[in-house]
Write a structure and sequence with these properties.
The chain has twelve helices and four strands. It is 52% helix and 7% strand. Helix 1 runs antiparallel to helix 2 and helix 1 packs antiparallel against helix 6. Strands 1-2-3-4 form a four-stranded antiparallel sheet. It is globular and about 65 Å long. The relative contact order is 0.10. The protein has 407 residues and is α+β, with helices and mostly antiparallel strands.
Length: 407
């Protein structure tokens, strides 16, 4: 991730916040404003040095940024850990040298609102305007700091974003009912996730204890400290990961069913739900479930979710050589939880650059290389199980593959 990417994400999230405010969806507006603020802060830090967003103890982002990504012992980029929102704000204050428009006390409601939505699927309607307004101030200051055009950053809201009453007055199709239903679903799924976490904790203890007595590893005796530690770790992570996966997948199916009940994605059948609304609902539910599950785990099991469980959760990697008809894959930060998810797409032949060529596609004679177009198809997070599987959803979540792909 670089400053440009964070800036793009920040701009798009802030516009989504304004879209939601315009439509009367205060919960979604606060959710997007909080996410946009975090992207803004990390954008300005990355502008100076990407290492500024690396969390203490991170061994992925730091070494990849310095060009040592392929060295032995360096964790893959998907395991990168970045600093939290509060630390990002304090560091951004430093690099902006007095140009941050608010202090940490004024910015705290933005962080609290986002955390409230993440853990409780709830926000205080009375503070929504304050939260969004503060987030807009920070975003505008960062935009100026990065010398990004106001028209490029705010687009259709360039003249109105400072005044939320003007934004609300712009014509839009409100969907407050969906917001309320999504909030209720997220709260219900959070309760189930907390119960699942407590059940996983009990199962982990019993499973690990039995595994230590039965499974020798690497030639070590079953009762040796080395074998015991490794088996305990894998057993704990397997049980906890499986429990979270089951809970999160059920929650995502419930979110999809909720959207379907509002007519999504059949827009031509009278649905008033946009792809952006669908992403907001799915993200809200996934974020709430992951946060509730993590919060209910005993402290001794917190490590089980600190890194992607690649040794206990299958994740496909069959995309070493890209060719026509094959899939493309890359890591993408999950918009709902701290993990990195998998985004998949495919290659399509483009037409030959020579108009007179009758081949219709790349003929191999006139082009220097095969002209190709990459299409994004689906994003899947292995932790919170957020799935975005429609072209409009990926576009609304600002996930796309390069339009021209060189294999």
């Amino acid at each position: 991730m670089n400053a440009e990417r964070f800036t793009d994400l920040a701009a798009q999230m802030m516009r989504s916040a304004l879209d939601s405010w315009r439509g009367g969806n205060r919960l979604f507006a606060v959710l997007h404003a909080g996410m946009g603020s975090e992207f803004c802060l990390k954008a300005v830090l990355c502008h100076h040095d990407p290492l500024l967003i690396s969390a203490h103890g991170d061994r992925a982002l730091r070494f990849h940024t310095l060009g040592f990504g392929g060295e032995k012992g360096v964790k893959p980029l998907e395991q990168a850990r970045t600093i939290g929102m509060a630390e990002a704000f304090k560091d951004a204050e430093v690099v902006m040298q007095g140009r941050m428009p608010v202090i940490i006390d004024a910015f705290t409601p933005v962080m609290e609102a986002r955390n409230g939505i993440a853990h409780l699927a709830h926000h205080n309607p009375g503070t929504a305007e304050q939260v969004v307004s503060t987030a807009l101030q920070v975003a505008e200051a960062v935009r100026k700091e990065l010398d990004v055009s106001a028209d490029d950053f705010w687009r259709g809201y360039a003249r109105t974003f400072r005044d939320l009453s003007k934004v609300a007055a712009m014509p839009a199709m409100p969907n407050v009912g969906l917001e309320q239903a999504a909030e209720g679903l997220a709260q219900t799924e959070a309760t189930q996730a907390a119960r699942a976490a407590m059940g996983a904790a009990k199962s982990a203890a019993a499973t690990a204890a039995e595994a230590v007595t039965r499974i020798p590893l690497w030639g070590d005796a079953p009762g040796s400290d080395k074998a015991a530690r490794h088996v305990l770790s894998v057993a704990h992570r397997a049980v906890v990961s499986a429990s979270l996966h089951t809970t999160a997948m059920r929650a995502q199916r419930a979110a999809a069913d909720l959207l379907k009940s509002y007519g999504y994605p059949l827009v031509d059948m009278g649905s008033q739900v946009s792809a952006s609304d669908a992403v907001a609902v799915k993200t809200l539910v996934a974020r709430n479930v992951e946060a509730a599950f993590r919060g209910a785990l005993p402290s001794e099991l917190e490590f089980t979710l600190s890194e992607p469980s690649s040794d206990v959760v299958w994740r496909p990697r069959p995309y070493e050589t890209a060719g026509y008809g094959t899939y493309l894959w890359r890591w993408e930060p999950c918009p709902a939880c701290p993990a990195w998810g998998d985004m998949y797409g495919y290659l399509e032949r483009d037409v030959c650059i020579v108009e007179e060529c009758n081949a219709g596609v790349y003929c191999g004679e006139h082009d220097e290389g095969p002209p190709t177009i990459a299409h994004a198809q689906v994003f899947a997070c292995p932790v919170c199980c957020l799935v975005l599987d429609a072209e409009g959803e990926l576009e609304a979540a600002y996930m796309e593959l390069a339009t021209a792909y060189e294999g």
